[in-house]
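A common beginner's mistake is to predict each chain separately and then try to dock the pieces by hand. The better habit, illustrated here, is to supply every component at once so that their relative placement is modeled jointly.
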Amino acid sequence: MKTLKRIYLGLILLFLYIPIVVLIIQSFNAGESRAKWEGFSLIWYGKLFDDPNIMNALWITVSIAVLAALFSTVLGTLAAIGIHAMRKRPQALMLTLNNIPMTMPDIVTGISLMLLFIFTQVERGYVTMLLAHITFDVPYVILSVMPKLQQMNKNSYEAALDLGATPMYALFHVILPEVMPGVITGAMLAFTLSLDDFTISYFTTSPLVQNLSTLIYSQARKGIKPTMNALSALMFVVLLVLLLLVNKRTDSQEK
Amino acid sequence: MTDFQVPVWGYWVMGAGLAAFLTLVGMYVKKNRGFKRPLFASPYVLWLALFTVIPCLLVAYFSFTDPAGNFTLDNFKNFWDSNYNARKAIDPKELESYLAMGLSLEDLGLARNAINIDTLVFSLWMAFLCTAICLLLGYPAAHIMADREFKLGPTLVILFIVPMWMNFLLRTIAMMSLLEDNGLINNVLEMMGVGRQKLLNNLAAVQLGMVYNFLPFMVFPIYNVLNKMDYKLSEAAMDLGCDKWHTFYKVTLPLSVPGVVSGITMVFMPAVTTFYISRLLGGGKVQLFGDLIEAKFLSTSLNEWNVGSALSLIMMILILASLGLLRKADPEGEGGGIV
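With all components supplied together, the output reads:
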């Protein structure tokens, strides 16, 4: 019975991991065909860097992730500080509204933002994708900063004001240093989620401005080329490492 | 790109909203004689209004209007009845006379093709199947790992958590490359002498991809609940003479319901809304509700956006309903909230 249970668990784990492991191994295959192993090689990874489309998409992905993380961290940290100080009812309302982008399926968020851009006649492209990314990043920043605010001494801000600090001075010298670890976690999470996103980007950009995931999607619809294997494998590892790092931070902060 | 015009009231609403917001902030400052901390949230209040609240309202606006901006219920009628447009094109009297002549709708080329409501039903069915398979596969796995005598359990759980952080699109692509005509499975089949099979672009492939993507979301919450459960309860049941099966059926299973419910919602919701899994593994031959919405919005004709909005609204209501159900069954979020 015991061995049977272990075999069962093993089979399920194999099912979960085989596709990804095979994809990564195949990306190192020297041959064009996936039918046979023709030796270890990095040519597909090399080809990635020669492809102007992929390099362009890489630039878009990374620059949007950096900008979205930056803006959403500023916006989210300020928002968290404000919401934390609110009275009960407005606070509950804000937290509910803040939850909408997180509970809504990505496809609906993407489409509702797309409709906003259609309605306001903003041409979809780089800027709209950035705005969308900021929108779905901020709630996670708020969720990372909020616990740190709750741990903080309630009176230190008021004390600073009583001692003659302006609200801005108190923000930078009293509140921010205390919540910094949460802010950094939030920024990292925002950056990673932005790199990770496919669905919302897909609906808020035009086919002319593609990030890596929309590029992979449009290529994969036509069948998978070895360069796409390499790109997927690469993205896969980068995203996983980033998320593991963020999660480790959150875990150690909770303790 | 399109000939969509912003209705005049659109500008008025936007202007009035901004003015109202500024007045509120001003009143707040005046009332409190100066700057108070809640004001730090004001940029985000504006942001939420513009990028979360208004877009949601726009989905509702587009689903109840036609391309010219007039109120209509046609988008929903269109959803309930796939032949609606075709019928509308033919004069109803003419249609009646054709029907009186004994011609069926099929003869007139108005056969109900599987769109809209049929797609929703099909999509719900696929999501239901996926949830059922995940539950059947996942519950035993969670149960085995939560067993106190199984020392490796807590370590193995991490192996189930990691896939939840992996990008769905990339995992789907990995599955696609495994099932391809010259993918690994087909190579193995050929070596075994079975010969190559068509594994991609069918229903089974889509279902497999969905289970593959969402299975960890079933295992983790159930494990969480089973792991936190007081093991003394089942021991007591055993001491009192319950056999293994009855202990499970009478004690463990009822106590694990919150985990099962959150697992079900966490699998069912993404399974209903997915579009790229069916697109990549079904090769366009399998259309789910998500694909339908995607198709409506990729189309250049404006009316399709209105229909697409109506479909999105229906999806939103569906999701909210299942979330409400989850809250009811698992109010403390015992199933373990994961981002």
